[in-house]
Amino acid sequence: MWKKVDQNKFIKTLTENKFLVVIISKITEGYFLKVFCCDLNSYSEKDVEQAIQSRGLTNTDCKEEVVIAVSEYYNRFEWACKCDTLTDLFYELNSTTRFDMMLLADFNLE
After folding, report:
1. What is the pLDDT of residue 108?
2. Which DSSP state fits 107?
3. What confidence tens digit (pLDDT) does each residue in 79-107 have?
4. Which has the closest alpha carbon to 17: 57, 59, 66?
5. From CA 10, how far away is CA 50, in angstroms rounded?
6. How far apart are CA 52 and CA 60, in angstroms?
7. Are 10 and 22 in contact (CB under 8 A)?
8. What's the chain's average pLDDT?
9. Which is more confident, 21 or 57?
10. Alpha-carbon torsion 60, 66, 68, 70, what sign?
């Protein structure tokens, strides 16, 4: 099940330590979509701490926020794409991640 972690950041738990992360950014001519598959077992404790500190994360009890911090810090995304229109964005989200579109209900798409 997909969960909203921040205004433009979403996460889906695959296993206890493996997650799918979606980050959507509004850009001048559309949207930029990044998808990460983050396996916390692939990072040392020191790597995770470094990502947490660099992001100024204070709530390390929230595993989802830690995963987002690690994903953004190391930027090892599975794929990224520019979507010119909302239709393109919805297509990419649905066809590649089976994303729950209801999570975009309060997302500023304009």
Report:
1. 67
2. S
3. 899 999 988 999 999 888 888 888 888 77
4. 66
5. 22
6. 8
7. yes
8. 90
9. 21
10. positive
Quote the DSSP letter at residue 61: T
Cα–Cα distance, 51 to 61 (Å, whole number): 14
The residue to which tokens 């040392």 are assigned? 44
Q: Which residue has the tokens 């979606």?
A: 22
**pLDDT over threshold 70, residue 109:** no
DSSP character at residue 17:
S
CA proximity to 19, closest of 60, 81, 77: 77
User: What letter would DSSP give residue 34?
Assistant: E
Handedness of CA 51, 53, 57, 58 (dihedral sign): positive
Which residue reads 């980050």 in tokens?
23
Distance CA 7, CA 100 (A): 15
pTM of the model: 0.87
CA 88, CA 71: separation in Å to the nearest integer?
24
Q: Is 92 helix (H, G, I), strand (E, B) or coil?
A: helix
User: Cβ distance 78 to 33 under 8 Å?
Assistant: no
